[in-house]
Structure formats: C-alpha cells, structure tokens
C-alpha cells in the first residue's frame, strides 16, 4: 500500500428542477421521441432556468458531497477545490473560487480544469496527484456543466443530446500512513489537439474574440468513431496497468454521451451489459458532470457496492480522453 493514496469519502450530485422531454423538444425541432431514443437512448434531460449558472449547480453538488463526507467520518472541510467545467460562469475569473466561497471553505486554493467531457477524469488525476504528493490532504472535486446555455436550441443535431448537471466527490489521503485503503488506483489520460474541430465552440476566446459563433458544434460521426476507439483503448490500458482482467470488473462507468457509444465500447471490451452503469436516459449528456452524476446516482440506487472493482472512461473535446480504476468504498 502506498504511503499516500486518494480515497473517496463523499459523493453528491445536483440536477436542475426543469425536466425537458423528447416531446418537449419535438414541439420546436424537426424530431420525435422515437428518433431521439433510437439514436441516443435519451428520454429526458434537465435544463437550467434563465439566471441559473454553473456555479449554482456546482455549489449544490459540492455541499452534498461534503455532507456525505461528514457521514463517513470526514471533517466536511477540504484543502483544495478543483472544478471541471467547459461552461464557467464567466471567461474571467475562474468559477472554482466562487464555489469554494459559497460553500464556506474560506481561502483554500481553487481552480478550474477544462477538458470538456473528460473533465472529471482530468480533475481526478489532478486531485489524486496533489494528495499523493502531499500538497493536500483533502480535495473537493466538482464537475459541472450547463451545456443548454451554449447549444443552439434550434440545432437538430445537438439540442437533444445535452442536459445540465453537476457531480462532486471528496477525496482524502489514504494509504499506509493513514491505515485506510485507497479508492483510486490508477488513471491514464490522453489528448490530440489536431482534432480540436471535432467538438468546438468557435467564438468567445482569443482566437475569434469578436465572433458571433457562440454555439457549440460537433462532428457527430467522427466523434462517435473517436469516442469508441479512445474509450476502448484507454480502458484496456488502465486494466493492464492495474492488473485487472475484464471479467473482474464489477461496474463499467463510461461518459454518458450516447447509449450507442456505451454499448459499442462495452461490446469491444467484452463487458457484460448488466455491468454497464447508465443513466443518460434520464439526464442526457451532462458533459464533464456525466461520470460523477452517474456514480452518485448509482450509489443512491444501491448499484455500487463496497469492494466493487469499477472502471471509468471518457472522451471529450480537445480531443481528450482517459480512464481510471477504483475500488468502491463503503459510503454508508
């Protein structure tokens, strides 16, 4: 056992109250419930109301994770806040310090990470490294996105896919020094900036500061192929590094982008369908939040049990991707 290794002690998620059904979308788009379900597996998603920002969802999810941390014997306080998001409240400043302030965490360091739909895994790697290095004993990792604010509501290709949400996890130092078994075993990450145009919001940054192209765009078929290839490849790599065989995996939690992507990756890996965790039928693609929302939801429903061997994997804009292995803790 490592001297210092991250363990999960609290988990929580938050979804906006407003539920948008496929039939709701069909009133303004040339689409139907059957068309959306057959192409994505999504039936409903949650959208923020005007005036609600990413920080609102992030703070709510963070508060729930901190409360859960107290339940497992934690302090409800942390040394660091990391927020994974593509939809910050503002271009400047970062949103994480505001989330830390709203949670009453004082003047702890806080910063944003942007790896789009791979954001939670990039944040998990960052938080884990800080704990392992001794730079922090505890980290609140939040992943939150409000993609309904950047997706063109009139775009039939993307409007049906995305929902808003936030998921949060409290990580504390475990390992030989503490006597607590670690939760996070290993993480692999990758990127390919040559494919930045696969998933992109063209305007608003320093490249095109005056552009009117404020809407998110995506090359659907190319993203599908890359997502399946990269999620499959990174999962195989992480299993090899951890020393787990595919048939040892109890739960497979992929980025909740599209049911066809999840099924294709599981099929390539040989993961049985009953071990695939999915909730995108109810929440859609919540971008960086999708994995922690799926984990928190699965924990609440009793799907994840202490001791389960869990694999996470994601693909997102950048292009970015990654995978991680965890042993599920007893969160009560």
Automatic annotation (TrEMBL):
InterPro entries for this protein: ACP_syn_III_C (IPR013747), ACP_syn_III_N (IPR013751), FabH (IPR004655), Thiolase-like (IPR016039)
GO molecular function: 3-oxoacyl-[acyl-carrier-protein] synthase activity; beta-ketoacyl-acyl-carrier-protein synthase III activity
GO cellular component: a single term: cytoplasm
Domain Beta-ketoacyl-[acyl-carrier-protein] synthase III N-terminal, residue spans: 111-193
Keywords assigned: Acyltransferase, Cytoplasm, Fatty acid biosynthesis, Fatty acid metabolism, Lipid biosynthesis, Lipid metabolism, Multifunctional enzyme, Transferase
Pathway this chain belongs to: Lipid metabolism; fatty acid biosynthesis
CDD domains recorded: KAS_III (cd00830)
Keyword Cytoplasm annotated: yes
One GO term (biological process): secondary metabolite biosynthetic process
Active site: 117, 255, 285
Pfam family, one: ACP_syn_III_C
Domain Beta-ketoacyl-[acyl-carrier-protein] synthase III C-terminal: 239-328
Location of the region described as ACP-binding in the Swiss-Prot/TrEMBL record: 256-260
Catalytic activity annotation: malonyl-[ACP] + acetyl-CoA + H(+) = 3-oxobutanoyl-[ACP] + CO2 + CoA
Protein location: Cytoplasm
Lipid biosynthesis in keyword set: yes
Enzyme nomenclature, EC number: 2.3.1.180
Role according to the record: Catalyzes the condensation reaction of fatty acid synthesis by the addition to an acyl acceptor of two carbons from malonyl-ACP. Catalyzes the first condensation reaction which initiates fatty acid synthesis and may therefore play a role in governing the total rate of fatty acid production. Possesses both acetoacetyl-ACP synthase and acetyl transacylase activities. Its substrate specificity determines the biosynthesis of branched-chain and/or straight-chain of fatty acids.
PANTHER family: 3-OXOACYL-[ACYL-CARRIER-PROTEIN] SYNTHASE 3, BETA-KETOACYL-[ACYL-CARRIER-PROTEIN] SYNTHASE III
Domain observations: The last Arg residue of the ACP-binding site is essential for the weak association between ACP/AcpP and FabH.
The protein's assembly and partners: Homodimer.
Family note: Belongs to the thiolase-like superfamily. FabH family.
Name of the molecule in the record: Beta-ketoacyl-[acyl-carrier-protein] synthase III
Organism: Pseudonocardia halophobica
């Amino acid at each position: 056992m490592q001297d210092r290794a991250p363990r999960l002690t609290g988990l929580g998620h938050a979804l906006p109250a407003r539920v948008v059904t496929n039939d709701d979308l069909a009133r303004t788009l040339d689409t139907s419930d059957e068309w959306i379900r057959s192409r994505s597996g999504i039936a409903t998603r949650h959208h923020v109301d005007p005036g609600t920002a990413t920080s609102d969802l992030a703070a709510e999810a963070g508060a729930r994770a901190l409360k859960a941390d107290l339940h497992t014997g934690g302090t409800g306080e942390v040394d660091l806040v990391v927020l994974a998001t593509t939809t910050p409240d503002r271009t400047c400043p970062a949103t994480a310090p505001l989330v830390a302030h709203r949670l009453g965490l004082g003047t702890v360091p806080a910063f944003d990470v942007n790896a789009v739909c791979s954001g939670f895994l990039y944040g998990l790697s960052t938080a884990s490294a800080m704990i392992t290095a001794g730079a922090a004993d505890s980290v609140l990792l939040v992943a939150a996105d409000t993609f309904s604010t950047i997706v063109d509501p009139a775009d039939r290709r993307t409007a049906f896919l995305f929902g808003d949400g936030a998921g949060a996890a409290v990580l504390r130092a475990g390992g030989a020094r503490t006597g607590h078994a670690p939760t996070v075993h290993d993480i692999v990450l990758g990127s390919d900036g040559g494919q930045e145009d696969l998933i992109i919001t063209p305007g608003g940054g320093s490249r095109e500061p005056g552009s009117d192209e404020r809407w998110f765009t995506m090359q659907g078929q190319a993203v599908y192929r890359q997502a399946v290839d990269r999620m499959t490849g990174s999962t195989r790599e992480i299993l090899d590094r951890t020393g787990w065989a595919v048939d040892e995996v109890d739960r497979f939690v992929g980025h909740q982008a599209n049911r066809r992507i999840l099924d294709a990756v599981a099929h390539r890996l040989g993961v049985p369908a009953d071990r695939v965790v999915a909730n995108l039928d109810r929440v859609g693609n919540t971008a960086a939040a999708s994995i922690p929302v799926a984990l928190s939801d699965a924990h609440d429903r009793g799907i994840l049990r202490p001791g389960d061997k869990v694999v996470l994997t994601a693909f997102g804009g950048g292009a970015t991707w990654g995978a991680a292995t965890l042993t599920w803790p007893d969160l009560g």
